[in-house]
Amino acid sequence: MDRHASPAALRAAMRSGAFTDNTSGFAPGHVQCNLVILPDAFAGDFLRFCQANPKPCPLLAISPSPGDPTLPALGDIDVRNDLPRYRVFEDGEVTTEALSIADRWQSDFVAFALGCSFSFEEALLADGLEVRNVSLDCNVPMYRTNIPCAPAGPFRGEMVVSMRPFRAADAIRAIQVCTRFPAVHGAPVHLGDPALIGIDNLDAPDYGDPVPVAADELPVFWACGVTPQIALAHARPPVAITHSPGCMLVTDLNNSRLAVL
Amino acid sequence: MDRHASPAALRAAMRSGAFTDNTSGFAPGHVQCNLVILPDAFAGDFLRFCQANPKPCPLLAISPSPGDPTLPALGDIDVRNDLPRYRVFEDGEVTTEALSIADRWQSDFVAFALGCSFSFEEALLADGLEVRNVSLDCNVPMYRTNIPCAPAGPFRGEMVVSMRPFRAADAIRAIQVCTRFPAVHGAPVHLGDPALIGIDNLDAPDYGDPVPVAADELPVFWACGVTPQIALAHARPPVAITHSPGCMLVTDLNNSRLAVL
Fold first, then answer.
1. Are residues B200 and B216 in the same domain?
2. What PANTHER family would the database entry show (chains A, B) (predicted)?
3. Do A204 and A243 belong to one domain?
4. Helix ranges restricted to H, A34-190
5. Interface pTM (ipTM) of the complex?
């Protein structure tokens, strides 16, 4: 698949089952999203969870009504087939991966599209900064922290963060660049000593791949879209569906439109 | 003297010799400036030095013409008498302190008013952040670094920085707040390991007073208005005049007017 194909062409290929891969680097310039689908009985509390925790859960769009699989604010989208790959959760645990969820769709499902780090990584790269996981062509390292999220109903848990190392002057610039993009995790939440947020060993991420941090670099930590999966594990809804890691919802929105300035 | 007196009333008291003190905390909300006065033969190179090094030398105003002691952009100001206290340099070295420079004024003098950290400290405090040197009622610690300034004619030298400690989340917020104020040193230039910018010992500042840095805090470093004095020492003009440390030019400008956003 051509990386520069339009978002609509990419989604058509996903819908037909021709594209089932990681979406990193595809449709550059366009917003990609984390997806969370829940029964309507859990949707109100999850919406409050997102509102109370905007850095890990920046909500970009929500289903027009329960059972409606479209997200018109983000493009001509059917969330049942327009992602490459899904994860199905039962009682808060992953039980299945699937290429389509059409056969599992329920009339009470509500879909949430949340901002994703791909957008701010693109802004960092466009600014001339090196993003280590991009340079190394690996997944970003992610860690569970001791930073509590604000609870909402059954949704609670600690924040998950992603880490990218920078020299101090570049870390300051990265903070400035990401401050313009609150809808895709915004400014970092921590930098420097990982132990201060409950991370024991940078070389052993809880998700993704480790990356080297040079002696003259600081680890810089951003709130991460994996956080909702921790909240799902606490809330234990009978069924929930998310994108599969790295296999995101590709939208028609331009990344630059998310800049607040 | 009433700390809340107007800038014009404060300058009148300085002009009459009734106020000869540090201006920190006076006329809150108003911009205070570093002052550098040079013979016109050096003014062009110093102007280029400021343009090339805007973080340590953010130029807010310059004399309308050589020999003119006013700075109409900043208020009804006569730079010969309207500061509490001056330093006179000969061949780049401090030789005298003076309460007025009326008797030393030359027809070829050009005055430069540069932004000062008081403005961004006020913005940090207004945001609810603790500024250690303000809490401790002492001078901010300042350090010579190994960060070279861009040279211009005879003006050159390393950047001087001021340091304020913050926990990481507050350091990130401080970067955001100060980014709005490029005319008063703007965002920090470094944070974390002092050795990376040539500072051996935080407890032994080159200027000002040491402040404690807690185990869970990062030292955060801003470009400092003392930098021009290093450049003066290199350029060795036959005569130059600056404000005395902490005894600044109080202007009519509102700090909030310097915010770029």
1. yes
2. D-GLUTAMATE CYCLASE, MITOCHONDRIAL
3. no
4. 40-52, 117-126, 132-135, 168-179
5. 0.90
